[in-house]
Amino acid sequence: MVWTATYIWSQILTVLEYGLLGASYLVKNRKAIVLLDTASMTLGIIAFILLGADLGMAMSVVILLANFYYLWDEQTQGKRNKMTLRDYIVLAIVLIAIAVLAVLTYDGPLSLLSVAATTLYEISIFWQGNTRVYKLLGIPVAFCWMTYNGFIQSIFGVLCEAVMFVLSIIGYVMEVRKGKRGKRRKKRAKR
Asked: Tell me: the pLDDT tens digits for 68-85?
């Protein structure tokens, strides 16, 4: 790995990308998560382009486009608890796009970790609608992206994703504790 200006810029953008992503694990509402992830993915796309990581870039584009759909859907339909036929159709389109782009930009077995991370992320962010599930699935997503960043030799990608891994665990633990406190309060209120 040569430390060129392009590589250095990719690492700077990577740090900014992960700063926004880390913030998404600490916020409480889904819309804020999607907004932070959208900004993060935009920076990630540019960083992957600079690194020549085609599959990572392609997966980031899928995430970015899906985030735009989620924002539009929530703005026009409001927050919903039930899945509609359109939601399943969009999920199928997203998964097909992931598969097609994975085939077109395949760069070895380790490159498929970005595909696994993207698939888990897509399931967690929209089709669950539950921030606890998002934070739980953030753990394997972070592991997959950390390994992929090692594969593409993004030093700050590995380091930042290690931080995301820890933040996703912290966010999940906080969410579980919050749920337990709520259950205890309900039990006390019934007495």
From this structure: 887 787 788 777 667 778
Q: Helices 155-190 and 5-26: crossing angle, nearest 10°? A: 0
- Which helix (H) or strand (E) segment is 78 a member of? none
Higher pLDDT, 126 or 12: 12
pLDDT digits (tens, 9 = 90+) for 44-58: 999 999 999 988 899
Residues 106, 127, 143, 2, Cα dihedral to 10° = 50
Question: Would you state the torsion angle of the CA atoms of residues 171, 173, 174, 180, taken in this order, to the nearest 10 degrees?
Answer: 150
Three-state secondary structure readout of 17-67: HHHHHHHHHHCCCHHHHHHHHHHHHHHHHHHHHHHCCHHHHHHHHHHHHHH
CA 159, 98, 113, 120: dihedral to nearest 10 degrees? Answer: 80
User: Dihedral through CA 94, CA 95, CA 98, CA 103, nearest 10?
Assistant: -140
| CA 127-132-134 angle, 5° bins | 50
Q: How far apart are CA 26 and CA 160, in angstroms?
A: 15
Gyration radius of the chain's alpha carbons: 17
Taking residues 140-168, report their average pLDDT.
91
Domain boundaries, the chain: 5-190
As a whole-number percent, the residues of the chain with pLDDT over 90 amount to 32
Tokens of 55: 């599959």
